[in-house]
Amino acid sequence: MKMRIALISVFFLLFAVSSTVSAAVPDLRLGNISNQSGKLEISYTPSSLTVSKLFPPLTENSRIGLVSGDVAEYKIKVNVGPGEYDNIALTNYVQEKSPWHTNIDKNLVILPGHALTEKFYSDMAMYYARQGYSVYILDRRETNIPVDETDFSYMNNWTFDEYLKDTYEGINASRSHTSLLNGKPAESIEVTAIGHSHGALILTAYEASEYDDLSTGSVDRVIPVDIIIAYNPENSELIRNQTQEFNVISESIENGNYNDDSMAGMMYIAYLASTEPDVGSYFQSGLTNRQFFRVMASQTYSFSMYPYTPDYHYWSGNASSLDYVDENRLLYLTLTGGAVPYTPKYLDLYMAGLMGNVEGYEINSSRIDSPVLYVGFGGGFGDYGSWWYENEVGNTNSRVTSVNWNDQGHGSLLIDRNSPEIWALIDNWVKNNKNLKKEKP
User: Fold this and answer.
1) Does pTM surpass 0.90?
2) Of 1, 14, 84, 313, which has the maximum CB count within 10 A?
3) Are 260 and 360 within 8 A, CB to CB?
4) Which of 344, 438, 394, 439 is nearest to 229 (CA)?
5) Domains of the chain, earliest start first
């Protein structure tokens, strides 16, 4: 925890004397390794309709142009509330027949991980666009916050219910945009959703909520990637740890601290690893800045008071090198908008509440009625995450599949050299699993 405080302090000192740095290494949490939000059981009537009457969503669509062959990029911005940062953005990649026209009629919506933006998912999105999907990467509200922001009081309103509403607005907007391009009714457009980490939690809760019952908000297949909704009860020590984490976050929120800035520390580490790679690390004697960055990425569990799993890490490797990823590209994306330093603590609270078996924090597994593919990474959440989907969702849903893919880190969905292998596995599953939704209990 002292290391985390030192990192954050030095980070803000950096901003006082140098140019803006605009990203963070995905999901690498210093001292407080949790994700996610809220304070409600996910079985309720959505509040989005009431909120929408007060603040009608305003959508802006723009065509960026062709980015690869016949694949074009579009940007869609949706207003979701009254505040300065209350907007979500979708980046769409789709094969065109001509500008503003496609014959694609199936959507793939990607919900990014903690503090990540579309830049880390663009390779994946381009891959699926070439497989015949209209692909949308949904950037959440926190991606709007500038790095020099100091007032986070508005995050008190960014509850988990609001994030589910935003997800509905994003899925609705994706249908409307594809309908605009292909001329078919929005309700007829099939939607598959992939959620990674933080996004996997939101996607799972969304599928269990009544937002998914709305005609323009329904999801036909769900693919949560590397997340833990609830531990196997045999993992009693890990459960106790997350209960403690929940209490720490709760106290922080009660004291008026709504913002988690742990990504800001990683931004500084990435900055030093990129600009002064061979200089000795301030944080760990005997290591250079680049070596310390590698250790943070490959031994993430050792920097957390409450690690999710015993070997939890983001990328496989050691102080000498990272094994599967081009670390120069990783640093480049990190420092050029691939992630953001600030996220709401309510998201952290919700995940800790779920994993810590805190009363009032649960997802109704019986409401998850679409085909489900859970993907875990051996060095991330792996089999710890698959347990809930197999044993809880699987009790009422016969179309649950789980895959524990390779001994790679939590970030391996994104830009590892072999990431296309898991993308292809997911694509094959989608094409072989049609949705036959039943009425939810």
Assistant:
1) no
2) 313
3) no
4) 394
5) 1-433 (3.40.50.1820)
Rounded distance between C-alpha atoms, residue 438 and residue 436, angstroms: 7
d(CA 97, CA 182): 10
Following CA atoms 29, 32, 33, 39 in sequence, which dihedral angle do they give, to the nearest 10 degrees?
-120
Burial label, 19 (beta-carbon count in 10 A; 0-12, 13-18, 19+): exposed
Would you say how long the chain is, in residues? 441
